[in-house]
From TrEMBL:
<feature type="transmembrane region" description="Helical">
    <location>
        <begin position="136"/>
        <end position="157"/>
    </location>
</feature>
<keyword id="KW-0472">Membrane</keyword>
<dbReference type="GO" id="GO:0005886">
    <property type="term" value="C:plasma membrane"/>
</dbReference>
<comment type="similarity">
    <text>Belongs to the MIP/aquaporin (TC 1.A.8) family.</text>
</comment>
<feature type="transmembrane region" description="Helical">
    <location>
        <begin position="211"/>
        <end position="232"/>
    </location>
</feature>
<keyword id="KW-0677">Repeat</keyword>
<dbReference type="GO" id="GO:0048878">
    <property type="term" value="P:chemical homeostasis"/>
</dbReference>
<dbReference type="InterPro" id="IPR023271">
    <property type="entry name" value="Aquaporin-like"/>
</dbReference>
<keyword id="KW-1133">Transmembrane helix</keyword>
<dbReference type="InterPro" id="IPR034294">
    <property type="entry name" value="Aquaporin_transptr"/>
</dbReference>
<feature type="transmembrane region" description="Helical">
    <location>
        <begin position="94"/>
        <end position="116"/>
    </location>
</feature>
<dbReference type="InterPro" id="IPR000425">
    <property type="entry name" value="MIP"/>
</dbReference>
<keyword id="KW-0812">Transmembrane</keyword>
<comment type="subunit">
    <text>Homotetramer.</text>
</comment>
<feature type="transmembrane region" description="Helical">
    <location>
        <begin position="169"/>
        <end position="191"/>
    </location>
</feature>
<feature type="transmembrane region" description="Helical">
    <location>
        <begin position="26"/>
        <end position="48"/>
    </location>
</feature>
<dbReference type="InterPro" id="IPR022357">
    <property type="entry name" value="MIP_CS"/>
</dbReference>
Amino acid sequence: MVEKLDMGDIVGVNDLKENKQLWKELLAEFVGTFVLLFLGLFSCIGGSVEQISFAFGLAVASMAQAVGHISGCHINPAITLGFLIVGEISILKGLFFIIMQCLGAVAGAGVVYLSLLDTLMGNNLGITSPAANLHVGQAILIETLITFVLVIVVKAVSDSDRIDIKGSAPLAIGLSITAGHICAVPLTGASMNPARSFGPAVVQNSWDNHWVYWIGPNIGGILAGLLYRFCFKQSSPE
């Protein structure tokens, strides 16, 4: 018998009516993204590629350990979209997650900016932009690929039907972010996260090629979500 689709579940009306913990999940997304920007952007001021890479990777790993049990610790619109596109999160809940992620990013970037207001001396505060010799199409491709790696790792370690996972899921996610940053910081700034780019752009009113960091990561998130759901997802044991 074919199971009838419940539009209330798909759209998310039932989430709003029945999920009494939704406010906690939204707060977790805000706090997680705030901490990611707070720790990550400080590393961008005079930090080496390695320092920046580990700061962002360890920040995500720490937050995944802290609030992953509450909201899943997406703290990234591309990850939320990767879950949304295959129906693993409702439309309204996904939209609210993305809104809270962006607000958390702006708050985190704002705190860092205020902390360093008199010491920036013309340096931008972690604004992501393609390298001068890179075409925007190439930047989109790079952001798509590194975000694809991140989201497929997230999907794999959060697969409830897997019984072989023995390591740390937060560490695996954090290391995938570190790897993406090490290879792409000199090329695109290695956003891997539209909210990560959105926060500093709002605070410093800098929007040059900002759209690249919504298009690339979100394409990567969608592709990873579809590939994992329809090709790699483990089947439930009989």
